[in-house]
Design brief:
357 residues; two-stranded antiparallel sheet; 10 helices
């Protein structure tokens, strides 16, 4: 991917991984297969466009903003089932809800993401400096995905047969926007283990945004990513499960969820940038184990440790699972001392087979 002058490398990240769409594209269901192929083609075009676009961010001295004035700046656009971005503006920050439920859900999801990062981690928008949050809905025809393209969110409506409206699960919105947080902080390479960490961090904070918006404890949460996204005819509950990786779906069209829960079952593959959506199940499961071991609200201690690791400046772009695990142990020690939190971090990584020393 082409580096830009500021050092950031915006990536094109989709919530539905290419390996899953590839499986659907080979289905005997001709309609579903054609829609999957078209989605893959559109994703490839957008990914190529992203690679040809150099995003320049010039550091500009800005006056301090009082905490009370750190408000979101959301704008929702409607692509009208076309592919021109961003589309026509349909709702701004000061506008009241309209009649389009998809627009309203996108607006609320951007707000839920903004609120968690600001209220719990004192991060003002995804870049830490009040970046405006833009999203486009009703993208393309029967488009089975949602993505962050380095600058904005984009949501398809789904085909109604395999996938429903991609604004339905708030964790999908939080997941994709967290790719932006990673882009502005650790800038993890989108391949292999660092790519799987990139995906896992988006799953972790996407789940925390959902839990925060619902007021759920770690014990009450379902730990599913994309629950409510699969159509009723699909044999599955979500795209991924952090609690039990590999169990989210088992369907004739989608196939079997391939995520491993530990390093013993790590998947070596050239697909999906080296399995970034597959092997993310391992750090996902480690976070679930940590959060449920500590109890209470997962965005508090467990989430704080992961946030400190992501934004602490020591996480390298090519970090392995072991690198990340060691830094989470260090972050826990520095914030909480050698107590329950640090012991729980070490135990969680041990359970999934990732060494911390």
């Amino acid at each position: 991917m082409t580096a830009n002058p500021s050092g950031f490398e915006p990536v094109f990240c989709t919530i539905v991984p290419p390996h899953l769409l590839d499986r659907v594209a080979q289905s005997s269901n001709a309609t579903a297969a054609e829609r999957a192929r078209l989605t893959l083609e559109r994703d490839a075009l957008e990914r190529g466009r992203r690679r040809r676009t150099v995003v320049t961010r010039t550091a500009v001295a800005t006056p301090p903003v009082a905490p009370a004035d750190r408000k979101p700046k959301r704008t929702i656009y409607d692509a009208g089932h076309g592919t021109q971005l961003p589309g026509d503006q349909v709702r701004g920050e000061s506008d009241a809800p309209g009649q389009d439920a998809t627009v309203n859900r996108a607006f609320a999801g951007l707000g839920a993401t903004f609120e968690l990062y600001l209220q719990k981690y004192d991060r003002w928008s995804i870049d830490g400096n009040g970046l405006a949050l833009d999203a486009t809905v009703h993208y393309d025809q029967d488009y089975n995905n949602a993505f962050w393209n380095g600058e904005q969110m984009v949501f398809g409506d789904g085909d109604g047969e395999i996938f429903l409206d991609f604004t339905l699960p708030v964790d999908v919105i939080g997941h994709e926007l967290t790719h932006g947080v990673t882009q502005y902080t650790a800038n993890l390479t989108y391949a292999g283990q660092p790519g799987a960490l990139n995906e896992s961090l988006s799953d972790v904070f996407g789940s925390l945004i959902k839990q925060y918006s619902l007021g759920q404890s770690a014990a009450e949460a379902d730990w599913l990513i994309g629950a409510g996204l699969l159509a009723p005819s699909v044999q599955g509950v979500a795209l991924r499960s952090m609690k039990a990786p590999g169990t989210a779906y088992d369907d004739d069209v989608l196939g079997k969820d391939p995520q491993p829960a530990d390093m013993e079952h790590y998947v070596d593959t050239e697909e999906d940038n080296g399995g970034v959506h597959i092997n993310s199940g391992i750090p996902n499961h480690a976070f679930y184990l940590l959060a449920t071991e500590l109890g209470g609200q997962a965005w508090e201690r467990a989430g704080q440790i992961w946030f400190d690791t992501l934004t602490g400046g020591e996480l390298g772009e090519d970090a392995s699972f072991t690198d990340f695990a060691q830094l989470t142990a260090k972050a826990a020690q520095e914030r909480y001392g050698a107590g329950d939190e640090t012991r729980a971090v070490l135990k969680a990584w041990e359970q999934v087979g990732v060494p911390t020393s």
